[in-house]
Fold Leucine-rich repeat-containing N-terminal plant-type domain-containing protein.
Amino acid sequence: MPCRHDISALKALKASIKPNSIPSWSCLASWDFAAADPCALPRRTHFTCGIICSLDSTRVTQITLDPAGYSGQLTPLLSQLTQLTILDLSDNGFFGSIPSSISSLSSLQTLILKSNSFSGSIPDSVTTLKSLESLDISHNSLSGPLPKTFNSLSGLRRLDLSYNQLTGFLPKLPYNLLELALKGNSLSGYISKSSFDGLTQLEVVELSENSFTGTLGAWFFLLPALQQADLANNSLTRVEISKPSGGNSDLVAVDLGFNHIEGNAPTDFANYPQLSSLSLRYNRLRGAIPLEYSKKKSLRRLFLDGNFLIGRPPSEFFGGDTWVSGSLGNNCLVGCPGSSQLCSPSQKPYEFPRLLRRPLHSRRSLSRSQPPPLSGLRRLDLSYNQLTGFLPKLPYNLLELALKGNSLSGYISKSSFDGLTQLEVVELSENSFTGTLGAWFFLLPALQQADLANNSLTRVEISKPSGGNSDLVAVDLGFNHIEGNAPTDFANYPQLSSLRCVTTAYVAPSHWSTARRSRCDGCFWTGIS
């Protein structure tokens, strides 16, 4: 029979739980102290689950409650269970503070309180549990800083405090950690090397969804046992990467997405031999995609979407022996094959959407700069020639107009487009048009796609569509000289799904949502943190 202290602790635990939260089928419902000894065997009708005792049936060594929705405050009398090695109360409704008397559980190896409603700070007394190997208090409402004495838990191998409301800096961490999870809190400051000193066995680091800032030093990815690192959704501004010593590293997966990292994509990630998953999505990276990424045989998942990357993606991504999933969307890239899953419509392709077919690729010089007044003409494509001069009056039955890649100049005049009530597609990019693009242009009644990128336009006027109706789907005004605030009225075009303004110095309207702003991939926005 267990000692009386153990029995009184078990009675106090059940008494602290609201009776109406103990289902008839649950473990606690079978705890009948008047009918049976908690450690007596066999357990057919009483104490059927939730408790494990020592071999001599004198001490309670494990409490593992079922996830039955128990609700109550954790009794301080649990401290009497001095031979307890496992305490698991996960996935229930315990609330209130964690009692400081828990420090008396000197034999405790595993403490799992995850997915409850515990609040208050983590008691410093937890850090006196010298035998503790696994601590999981994730998915609660704990607040305040992490105990400064965390590193005194010399035997701790796994620490998970994710999804609480913890604040402050990272303290010095226990040096025997294998896994660290602190994601989904409000931790801040730099990720300092001093916090990780001596952690030679650390394999998994999850620090995403916090408020860490500044530079992540090269030392971090050189932690000798590191395999997985998730630092997404913070406010890091710079990442330093060094080649691993001797070319040896166990690093497999890195997520640095949704930070504020600037500069070129770090080439040295390609020197980590086991790296198979890399996410740098939605940062502020510029320049070209490193060719080294495409030559890395181990890389299987690559997310670079939502940056300011330019040029053509390495061709190795789209053929040969390399097979990579992920996304390159929302950049300033060109020539990304639409057939590639990296550039699929769902990933936001980089080439402007086209309805036109069979484009002309001739570089012949045409003697005339004006098309004939062909009243029946529905499709006109004179792209990629050496045409000069102004736009004439256009055939009024046109559905598709493509004049890109010439040397046409002057203003884009309303008189050229008068009466074009059926015009759906306009491609005037890569010319030398100047001045103001009037509000009349986007009010053309059938217009769906407009590509005016790579010109010298200096101003764009936008008006709300009449009655709120418009078929406009895609607009490209990138690589012009347009200044001023981003045109607010683009938000009034109900079908608009693609808006690009690369290298356009717009100021973002303060009331535009993040989702709305993100349509303008690659803009040099000001006024956005």
Notes: The radius of gyration is 32 Å. Residues 345-372, 503-529 have pLDDT under 50 and may be disordered. Residues 407 and 431 are 5 Å apart (CA to CA).
